[in-house]
Write a sequence for this structure.
């Protein structure tokens, strides 16, 4: 919105605020104290006398409730105008799952394909995704994946390994977009191909990060035991050599949180509590390690994230050891 306020998705923002506040068993005054948002603003939202709030206000309210901002807004909206047979979605499907008879295009011009340019395209694609610009990303994604596949085709040696890593990230992005479009089976197809690319990539953590995306997809399909098993298996792979760097700890911790979330949603609160405790201990180790070179490329994992997820599950399910 032009004035920087956000009204949220379906339903009224105030109704979601009321529901989450009551689930958290906190009064309007208590939420005001926790969040730093005035009780007057909270009352106006809940009474529908105020229909929107600025993003910093939403972040404060979410922190006070122990939930993510998306808990107040609902999940980022999918593309409601993308039909099953729309040209945009067909192009995404073809990019993710090309026909066996499809021919890889030849590079244009005399200059070799720039892998740095491909990586920049992928980074921009992830920026669009995190900004919920799903329409623009749907248009751009086929070209991004095509360029990454071409980079693999023309690359050799170390360059080819780097190209496989780029293709893995592009297909991981395709999986995340497919989830937001409500196409979880397409998401799994994209992520399976991302795992194959990661197996030939230079980044030893890429497969584990893609595995976390697979676990998230299983969660969206309510395949909670599959999600937990997949996340634990991938975490064990990272832990086999004992995580030493901040990147390794963050990827391992992200997988553990994913497994914990699945256990909690499945009703196994005792196991979830045990895993939360392990995750919080691991998060504490991050303060003693040099930060990752590029933190945007690894899982978001820290002590605050662990605690927020613990409280979020408690709020959503009404019971969880805190």
């Amino acid at each position: 919105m032009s004035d920087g306020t956000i009204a949220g998705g379906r339903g009224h923002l105030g109704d979601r605020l009321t529901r989450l506040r009551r689930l958290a068993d906190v009064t309007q005054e208590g939420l005001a104290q926790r969040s730093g948002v005035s009780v007057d603003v909270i009352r106006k939202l809940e009474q529908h006398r105020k229909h929107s709030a600025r993003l910093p206000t939403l972040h404060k309210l979410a922190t006070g409730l122990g939930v993510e901002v998306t808990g107040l807004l609902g999940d980022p909206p999918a593309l409601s105008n993308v039909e099953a047979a729309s040209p945009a979605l067909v192009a995404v499907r073809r990019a993710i799952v090309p026909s066996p008879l499809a021919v890889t295009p030849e590079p244009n011009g005399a200059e070799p394909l720039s892998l740095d340019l491909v990586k920049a395209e992928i980074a921009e694609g992830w920026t669009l995704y995190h900004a919920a610009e799903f329409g623009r990303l749907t248009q751009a994604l086929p070209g991004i994946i095509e360029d990454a596949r071409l980079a693999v085709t023309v690359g050799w040696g170390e360059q080819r390994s780097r190209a496989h890593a780029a293709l893995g990230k592009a297909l991981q992005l395709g999986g995340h977009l497919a989830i937001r479009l409500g196409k979880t089976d397409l998401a799994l197809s994209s992520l399976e191909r991302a795992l194959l690319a990661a197996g030939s990539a230079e980044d030893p953590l890429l497969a584990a990060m893609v595995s976390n995306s697979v676990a998230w997809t299983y969660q969206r399909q309510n395949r909670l035991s599959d999600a937990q098993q997949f996340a634990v298996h991938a975490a064990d792979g990272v832990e086999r050599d004992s995580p030493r760097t901040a990147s390794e700890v963050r990827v391992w911790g992200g997988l553990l949180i994913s497994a914990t979330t699945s256990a909690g949603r499945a009703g196994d609160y005792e196991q979830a509590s045990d895993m939360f405790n392990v995750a919080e201990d691991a998060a504490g180790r991050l303060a003693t390690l040099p930060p990752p070179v590029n933190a945007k490329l690894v899982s978001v994992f820290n002590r605050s994230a662990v605690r927020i997820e613990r409280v979020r599950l408690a709020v959503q399910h009404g019971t969880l050891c805190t």
